[in-house]
Amino acid sequence: xxxxxxxxxxxxxxxxxxxxxxxxxxxxxxxxxxxxxxxxxxxxxxxxxxxxxxxxxxxxxxxxxxxxxxxxxxxxxx
Length: 78
Prior knowledge:
Blueprint: H1 6-26, H2 34-63
């Protein structure tokens, strides 16, 4: 939501993916029941996958030099 360009969005999605990797790795050290650890890791991995798909689409747009109309989320009507 804070990105103003495709390049900004690529940067922030990459940062989120990296942070999720750290969180997924650190779950094993948590004093939680194994089932909670497994579900939390799966949930975080799903988020990481979603950000990865977005990152893939954005880098493809840049690589193909496609025209892209940027609409930050807070401007979009639901």
